[in-house]
Specification:
The protein has helices at about 30-40, 60-65, 80-100, 115-130, 135-150, 160-175, 180-200, 215-235, and strands at about 15-25, 45, 105-110, 155-160, 205. With about 240 residues, the protein is of the alpha/beta class.
């Protein structure tokens, strides 16, 4: 099977504006995504994070299999296979988005997208294989995805205090993070900086330090509305 050539990422493309929300664990992505989607109203389609997919769906069954060992990062000891499985699920989601009848949708707001797979799996792969150039791995994972589908039109990258984020994440999952978990979290956070530097036109950073969840959600909503307006202007021009 030959991969198709995806359209260029451009805010002037047709169909819903596809916006992913990214950031390290515990920064408040899911809370912000849900609140922003609710504020944006019925013309916003919220795409749940893969780990939140219903267990009776195909993605849910794959995630359940990867999570069977209880590892927070779905590590089964086969990082290359895990990477390909997660990429396949995200490409499937992009295909479904592009082929669905979304005439009543202006924005598809995604809680973690292809960038998450790239940074998290590159972090895991680099640690597993003792590779120092994790940035090259992240770019390679993202380029693999790009061969099969277009990337999000825009990515909102939430940043914050690492210690606060990891503490919130640990409390949410109900267990202490291992040194190996923390290594993945911190390396993935560094890799977001690499991808953001590669594609500054796609990335918009929001620093959540000192903000309440409501303020973070409002900032995400405001950024999405600005992206929609920018797209409308591009379409008219």
């Amino acid at each position: 099977m030959t991969p198709t050539t995806p359209p260029r990422n451009c805010p002037g493309t047709t169909g819903p504006l596809w916006v992913s929300i990214e950031g390290m664990n515990g920064v408040g992505k899911s809370t912000a995504a849900r609140a922003a989607a609710a504020a944006l109203g019925s013309r916003c389609l919220l795409l749940d994070e893969l780990t939140d997919q219903a267990h009776d769906t195909m993605p849910g069954r794959v995630i359940a299999a990867l999570a069977a060992g209880g590892d927070v990062y779905l590590r089964t000891g086969h990082p290359a296979a895990e990477t390909l499985a997660l990429l396949a699920l995200k490409v499937r989601e992009a295909e479904r988005l592009s082929s669905a009848n979304l005439t009543d949708v202006d924005v598809a707001l995604e809680d973690r997208g292809l960038d998450s797979v790239a940074v998290c799996q590159a972090a895991i792969l680099s640690i597993h294989h003792g590779t120092t150039d994790a940035g090259r791995l992240a770019r390679s994972v993202l380029d693999t995805a790009r061969r099969w589908c277009r990337l999000p039109d825009a990515t909102i990258w939430l940043t914050g205090d690492a210690a606060e984020c990891t503490a919130r994440f640990s409390a949410r999952i109900g267990r202490t993070l291992t040194p190996e978990d923390l290594q993945v979290i911190h390396r993935a956070a560094e890799l977001y900086e690499v991808l953001a530097a590669d594609e500054p036109d796609r990335y918009t950073a929001i620093d959540t330090t000192g903000l309440t969840p409501q303020e973070v959600a409002a900032a995400v909503e405001r950024t999405v509305r600005q992206l929609v307006e920018r797209r409308e202007v591009a379409n008219v021009a």
